[in-house]
Amino acid sequence: MLTLSRLQTELDDRAATPAPAQPSFWKEFRRRMRYLFCCGANNNRLEPDFTDLNEVYVPKMYPDWLPLEQNQRYQNNKQRLYQAAYENICPADHIVPERDKRGELVQIGSGRYGTVFLARYKPTGDYVAVKRFKRNKSSEIHIRREAAFLDILQETKLCPKFYGILEEKRQSTSKFANLSIVMELVRLKENTKQCFNLKSFVQTQFARGGLTTKDWFNFNIELAQGLMEVHERGICILNLKDENIMVSRDSEGAIHPRLVDLGGVVLLDDDNPIVPPQTFTERKLNIFNKKRPSLAPELFKSSKPTAQIDIFSLGCIFEDLGKREMMCDLTELALWCTTSDPSLRPTLAVIVKELGELAVKL
Ligand SMILES: Nc1ncnc2c1ncn2[C@@H]1O[C@H](COP(=O)(O)OP(=O)(O)OP(=O)(O)O)[C@@H](O)[C@H]1O
């Protein structure tokens, strides 16, 4: 909602900005935010035409530094990307929503773009998570794009299995869009329906009981290794934060990270740099920066989507964990990862090595 003070600030800004050829602040702001968090390189496309993503995505899948064998796999992804976006449909009668005693849908979590519900996948009886998207926040291309990336990243240990796109006819007055994403339910333990993201996990005594510092180090090693796998596929998460990392515990009590919410992903080293609008004043940048402290500072100047951006966000996760669990070594590593100069941040390989060495000492 445009509050009076925000409106006043905008008007002040407009007055201070020379009129000719300057795009409106809010128009440019929305365009940039869409670029950052929704459509990535295809921010200008309003039509659900996915072929452009194919074209944009595939050349990026040939980074020189990758072994030939991996490049070959990316070539095969071209067809899959399209299929995931348009052909990987989960038939509506395969999904049986779970309801509580009052007959309401069981909600697992929610965010700015969607709400995630619990359901059963009829053919196998598996529990699944169905992410419904808010109609006013997500375009069709946004949803299809998220699904396509989930399809590619489900190969990694970090991301949940993708069951397909669910199409349901809803009234135009409905809060939710017609398309939803069906994916594996990432739950705390095999035999429960409870799900915890890292943020809620650390605050819930019964879920986190009995953990040692070593467990946390191993968890972080897995997280960094998982991120490496994501980067190897030419993808930058951009939106890495504790709410998007789910925690599961195995039969021995060890914790493992899984990544959900690929709504913000962009292509690594995309030629389109992410730049804040010209009219973004220093003050506004600071306000936005404070609201999203896990975003790397270079994003607020002008930056290509790089691995270092995710490493900064990973550092913010380490910082929170280090402080909360009183792991000084982790806090120190966090400081290194969140260096404002991206070229000084450690690579993921170095992070894994450092964490491994620290874990051995325990
Ligand atoms: N596969 C899943 N299994 C279990 N819980 C999930 C799953 N996917 C999402 N969640 C839960 O639902 C919450 C909201 O999902 P998600 O982050 O995808 O929504 P969003 O609207 O895109 O969020 P954001 O505001 O961060 O963009 C997550 O924080 C997580 O706790």
TrEMBL record:
CDD domains (UniProt xref): PKc
GO-annotated molecular function: ATP binding; protein serine/threonine kinase activity
GO CC annotation: cytoplasm; nucleus
InterPro entries in alphabetical order: Kinase-like_dom_sf, Prot_kinase_dom, Protein_kinase_ATP_BS
GO biological process, one term: mitotic DNA damage checkpoint signaling
Residues given in the record as ATP binding sites: K131
Record keywords: ATP-binding, Nucleotide-binding
Pfam families per UniProt: Pkinase
Residues of the Protein kinase domain: 102-362
Keyword S-adenosyl-L-methionine listed: no
UniProt KW Nucleotide-binding keyword: yes
Cross-referenced PANTHER family: OVARIAN-SPECIFIC SERINE/THREONINE-PROTEIN KINASE LOK-RELATED (PTHR44167), SERINE_THREONINE-PROTEIN KINASE CHK2 (PTHR44167:SF24)
Protein name per the record: Cyclin-dependent kinase 2-like
